[in-house]
Amino acid sequence: MGRRIAIGIYAVLILLPLTMVLLTSVKTLEQTFNNPLGIPIDEGLTFANYVNIFREETMFGYFINSSVVTLSSVSLTLLLSCMIAYGIVRLGNWLGNILFVLFTLGMMVPAQVSMVPLYDLILTLGLTNSLLGLILVNIAVTMPVAVFILTGFMKTLPKELFEASTIDGATNWTTFVRIVIPLSLPSISATAIFLFVMHWNDLLYPLLFVTDNAYKTLPLALLDFQGQYETNYPMLFTGVIIASLPMVLAYVLLQRYFVAGMTAGSVKG
Amino acid sequence: MKVSKSIYLFFIPGLILYSIFFLYPTLSAFFYSFTNWDGISDAFNFIGFDNYVRAFTGDTIFLTAVENNLKFMLFVVIFQTLFALVFAIFLVKNTKLNVFWRALFFFPTILSSVSVAFIWMFMYDANIGLINTVFGAVGLGFLQQNWIGDTSIAIYSLAFTQVWFHAGQMLIIFVAGLHSIPEDLYEVAKIEGATKWQTFRKVTWPLLAPSATIVIAYTTIQSFKAFDLVFAMTRGGPNYSTEIIATYIYEIAFRNYNFGYASAISVIFMFIIALITFLQFKALRSNRVSY
């Protein structure tokens, strides 16, 4: 009984704020201030916020920027990390161990530690206000956790597989592409989801490197809405919904993989 | 069997990116921490340990940020861990309904910090926020607070938001941990006539230690890195009451243009995290048992 009540309270605690987001996004500012929690039955709900946000803001642009940065960062981090993990497992000696420590060291260092020199570096390289700058930094920063998860998985693959493949005359690259990648797919997909969530939601690097609207990603654009719309919650929440939509849809469809991926990634630290 | 030399090529692209965009900036944080560089001009001087001395003796805001960060961390670690553990025990069986609850409680984890910040700014809003409105409506008006505007409670309001944000993720880790405990231990406990509490104390808790280690270590690190959430919600205000180390580094570097000093604080930050991680692993390791 107590258990059910507790679960019920937790469910309300999660659902209530989310419901408020949905509800507020279809109310006017005036309705929100006069009756923040109410449903305007007489006046009806409005979708004006959704129309306005696309009219006033370059939402499509932010959306595309976020998609380009996220997709490129995730796929490149995965490719490079798989190669490194495979290299570490194939070497299997002291050098492999040293490289493993070197690459996973980054998990211990919070991103904020290097933000000052990193900003200077990006400025020097002329990569401010560019998606490429964001992608390169994203790869370097998430590589440690990806290498950590993928190496852990690839270590469990039977060594005989690699050796048999080599005897058959396959190069390291062929073995990697034909055998290691297909067999590691469960671990790769878990890592991919973890990276997706991280890169899609990242605020710090766009905040540091991007000032031009043409290169802003969704989280940074949202943050700017705050300066622009202040406590215009209907507009802010409309932004929140649009920015979260891809993740929410993916979560509903691939829920099982999400949970697996996000917990694999949480071993980080 | 000898591996072909071409295996070294697999490291090259990753190593180049990692060196340029991670190792180099992290190491140069150490270098800049001994300078008075402003981040703009080409010239700077080496000033020895001055930045470090300043942080610990002449900068009350830094000490406030450390204190706030510790408050935030303690609140989050204690409540998030307890909360996640209790609900993991409640939802441990893989019934359809429990799987649904777990998925719902996990949901906030996939949102961006900025989104979560906006949601809770609305919840906490002193005038139109849901919390104060509900308190007002049920005659508990005296409980109304300026949740993120009052310097004495703002940091805890942010910590609560962090728990809302990530408890579901920790719950899942605990569920996985609980599933790894062999069923027969519970049967033995039952036959021996152990109470629920005794079973928890002697079976569940000790065998859950590895998951607890992960949860607590991860939560700790996460609460130090809560830059996005704090920055979006309060930017460290009002009056530095929610300033944490990460937001303070940002402020010194990009508002005050004192890159040298910001680097010194970054280095201190790194050592604080390393120290806490080390102590936790030591404490939790010594707790481990196996049957």
From TrEMBL, chain A:
InterPro entries hit by this protein: MetI-like, MetI-like_sf
Keywords: Cell membrane, Membrane, Transmembrane, Transmembrane helix, Transport
Membrane association type: Multi-pass membrane protein
Cellular localisation: Cell membrane
Annotated TM spans: 7-26, 62-86, 98-119, 131-154, 175-200, 233-254
Cross-referenced CDD domains: TM_PBP2
Pfam families associated with the record: BPD_transp_1
SUPFAM superfamilies membership: MetI-like (SSF161098)
Top-level taxon in the UniProt lineage: Bacteria
Start and end residues of each ABC transmembrane type-1 domain: 63-254
Gene Ontology biological process terms, A to Z: transmembrane transport
UniProt keyword Transmembrane present: yes
Any single GO CC term annotated in Swiss-Prot or TrEMBL for this entry: plasma membrane
Annotated family: Belongs to the binding-protein-dependent transport system permease family.
Protein name: Carbohydrate ABC transporter membrane protein 2 (CUT1 family)
Species the sequence originates in: Salsuginibacillus halophilus
UniProtKB/TrEMBL annotation, chain B:
Signal sequence, start to end: none
Positions of transmembrane segments: 7-27, 72-92, 99-120, 126-143, 155-178, 259-281
Stored CDD domains: TM_PBP2
Subcellular localization: Cell membrane
Organism annotation: Salsuginibacillus halophilus
Cross-referenced Gene3D superfamilies: MetI-like
Membrane topology: Multi-pass membrane protein
Keyword line: Cell membrane, Membrane, Transmembrane, Transmembrane helix, Transport
Domain ABC transmembrane type-1 span(s) in chain numbering: 66-280
Matching InterPro entries: ABC_transporter_permease (IPR051393), MetI-like (IPR000515), MetI-like_sf (IPR035906)
GO biological process: transmembrane transport
Protein family: Belongs to the binding-protein-dependent transport system permease family.
PROSITE patterns referenced in this protein's UniProt entry, alphabetically: ABC_TM1
Protein name, as recorded: Carbohydrate ABC transporter membrane protein 1 (CUT1 family)
GO CC term, one of those recorded: plasma membrane
